[in-house]
């Protein structure tokens, strides 16, 4: 039994605010990709999916004169730092195990090199999975942040992914016991 489900996260008002800001459809797609990759690579599917869902919650809206300003964003962006911190706080509030919360926060911190002066981070397999999952769903010009999803469909997708995670964790436990 997990301490925190994706649905618990999804239903929290902080997550709702920031998931919508950076694109709920993208967040859910990345959570699914991260789950599948983690399953294939025998990594922790729960941690991967949570990091996938929350990876972009640190985004700020860099607007100038009512329009998105890419230069401003490029210069000032620290969304992986902000997202890691925000996700950690949210997860701890929801009752997540502190070690798992830290692992998720670090995967969010390292999900991209875009905010760093160099791209020489050496990632753990799980951190690499979250980076790949994000790249799988990226669209040219950042369009993935604007893709829409109906709230009811989003909720159903989250519940479905929770079921897949539970199944996978159960299967893993059974193989470990036998
Ligand atoms: Fe992303």
What is the count of DSSP helices, taking H or I runs of 4+ residues? Answer: 9
Taken together, the total number of domains comes to 1
CATH architecture: Orthogonal Bundle
For the residues shown, what is the average pLDDT?
Answer: 93
- What CATH calls the topology is Hypothetical protein af1432
Widest β-sheet, arrangement of strands: 1-2
Order of helices and strands: HHHHEEHHHHH
Q: What's the level 1 CATH class?
A: Mainly Alpha
First and last CA, distance: 19 Å
Weakly predicted, low-confidence segments: none
Main beta-sheet strand count, sense and barrel state = 2 strands, antiparallel
**Count of strand segments:** 2
Structural class: mainly alpha
Shape: globular
What does this structure look like?
The protein is built from nine helices and two strands; from the N terminus they run ααααββααααα. By secondary structure, it is mostly helical. It has a single domain, classed as Hypothetical protein af1432 (Orthogonal Bundle), CATH 1.10.3210. Strands 1-2 form a two-stranded antiparallel ribbon. α3 (24-40) runs antiparallel to α4 and α6 packs antiparallel against α7 (98-109). The mean pLDDT is 93. The protein binds fe (ii) ion. Fe (ii) ion binds at residues 26, 30, 55-56, 134.
């Amino acid at each position: 039994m997990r301490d925190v489900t994706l649905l618990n996260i999804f239903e929290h008002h902080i997550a709702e605010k920031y998931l919508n800001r950076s694109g709920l459809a993208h967040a859910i797609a990345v959570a699914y990709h991260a789950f599948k990759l983690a399953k294939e690579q025998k990594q922790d599917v729960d941690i991967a999916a949570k990091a996938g869902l929350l990876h972009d919650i640190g985004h700020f809206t860099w607007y100038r004169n009512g329009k998105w300003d890419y230069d401003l964003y490029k210069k000032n962006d620290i969304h992986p730092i902000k997202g890691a911190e925000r996700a950690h706080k949210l997860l701890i509030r929801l009752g997540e195990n502190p070690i798992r919360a830290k692992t998720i926060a670090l995967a969010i911190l390292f999900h991209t090199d875009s905010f760093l002066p160099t791209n020489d981070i050496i990632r753990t397999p799980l951190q690499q999975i979250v980076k790949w999952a994000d790249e799988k769903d990226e669209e040219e010009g950042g369009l993935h942040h604007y893709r829409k999803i109906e709230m009811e469909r989003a909720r159903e997708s989250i519940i479905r992914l929770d079921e897949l995670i539970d199944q996978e964790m159960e299967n893993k436990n059974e193989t470990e016991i036998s």
